[in-house]
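User: For documentation purposes, I need each entry recorded in a consistent format: the amino acid sequence on its own, followed directly by the corresponding structure tokens. There are two entries in this batch. Please keep commentary to a minimum and don't merge the entries.

Assistant: Recorded as requested. Entry 1:
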Amino acid sequence: MSVMATHESYLVTGGSGLLGQHIVNQLLARKPGANVAVFDLAKPPGFDKDVRVFTGDITDRHALETAVKESKATCIFHTIAVLPGPPREVHLKINVGGTENVISVALAQGVQKLVYTSSASVVSDGHDQAGIDETVPYPSVPFDYYNETKAIAEQSVLSANGRSGLATASLRVAGLFGPGDRLTVPSFMNVLVTGRTGVQIGNNTNLFDWTYIENAAYAHILAADRLSPSHPKFSQVAGQAFFISNDDPRPYWDFPRALWKAAGHTPESITVLPQPVAMVIAVIMEFFCWLMGREAVLTRFRVTYVCMTRWCNISKAKEALDYEPPVTLAEGIRRSVEFWQKYQAPPPFKKSQ
């Protein structure tokens, strides 16, 4: 790892979340006793006693300003976001409004660095994207509200670079997963628990990117280090966006099958639903679930997503951030399934601690 900048005070918004906790832990691991604080809705369990925790809503400017001021933050890692699902108004409030609060407070309080957690999907319009880099423009019609609002927030962060001494960078993380995540691993392992591993939507030729959580946290810290004006790569990082992944794209269904295999399961046979057939089924399911006031298991969005090619060229991150993923995809899968079996799996999939 690169050398930590001296006299830094770090504030991690969303520090009780998966990525936020890993950023905090990595900061402390390379310099025990470092000045690290967290801002989140609730106090995370099991944090180091030296980590100061501020509770509050990211849309509450006063609460955020208090945290920045009292922690004497010189660097903010902004990881808070609402995930896909809620109405557009909620995405706008948290993803856009919350980020604008962070920028405004950072400028007012003389914060020197802001590293924003973006998503590889900010340039997605639902069509295939193979080996794309940071020159790809934002889409005129975003794939969903999450992508739309994360892109708006990212542009605000990058536009703030250079104002009042603030240096900013945005990390577009692809397919985040890891031990304790509440979305990716649990969703795929629920397919195993419910006995649906023998169904495949699409032909599985579409390559997809994934990023292990520790690698994503590592990339954030690399970016923060390089936002110091004295760093030789400052000009390559300040005001820039970077795709981050494990640099190991796989056919989409190969990833969940690797998770299931790590849990001791391999499907006996595979029934392939061609994308057009799956789309028709999704339309029917959405209609009848709408009539019954229930959520459809299969949707047009889901079919499009699992059949989409989406992998990124991370050469820019390798060059400017010196980023190389420390944890391989195979090891990340092993660790994630081990955690799931101990703490999240129902019987008979659960293993004793």
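Entry 2:
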Amino acid sequence: MSNRKSTAASLLLRQYRELTDPKKAIPSFHIELDDDSNLFVWNIGVMVLNEDSIYHGGYFKAQMRFPEDFPFSPPQFRFTPAIYHPNVYRDGRLCISILHQGGDPMTDEPDAETWSPVQTVESVLISIVSLLEDPNISSPANVDAAVDYRKNQEQYKQRVKMEVERSKQDIPAGFQMPTSHSAYVSQSKSPEPEQTKYATDNFWYDSDLEEGDDVYNYEDYKEGEGEGDDESMEFEEDGDSIDTDSVMDRKQPIKADDEFEDDVEEVNKAEQK
């Protein structure tokens, strides 16, 4: 596997673990890997928790695909199936500035609103939920939906309500739909005292970690150290693999840089090798 692809996989693993950690997960999203051996394709359930929204109560299936040079190129996002929305194409692809590559002279989008390497999956997902409730009708992907949104609000609402009801069939078995109250509790919950000292040094903390346990270190992985562990697992794509030192199984914290920008710098260094 190329250095570029392996560093992208390591970064995606960090963000996946954070977004699926019960202590930190955002209730609006239910995230799973499409294939346990492939970090580059995520299946996502999108939910709007605002009870005043016409999208409230729906479970909108979507998929995110990440490029091998992530985070330098944006992921692709597609609703599966497509939903009726001014900024969703009929094939389910989403038209949103944050997923467009910056610096394109063919568009009039400000670079500040387009993709940059410091964006995260979390920031993208939050922007998507915001767009559902507040469409950008100045640049529609679905003209019919944009016209209905502007001129036939009641018809638009009825169409969305039908899709909300249909989407409930896609709720995974045993999955409990979050509520606005659960979102409030999640956002306001203070970390436990023993978690605090790990907050700035690690993305994920496991309260069962005992003193002396190993910590998965990204720098060691990048240099190829620690490989060959009997407990290791691999993520594979197109015949390539990345040894993650059984991070997901052992639930050990991953040592992170103080700022996300440092991760981008590491990817830069890897690309230059």
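Summary note for entry 2:
Residues 184-260 have pLDDT under 50 and may be disordered.
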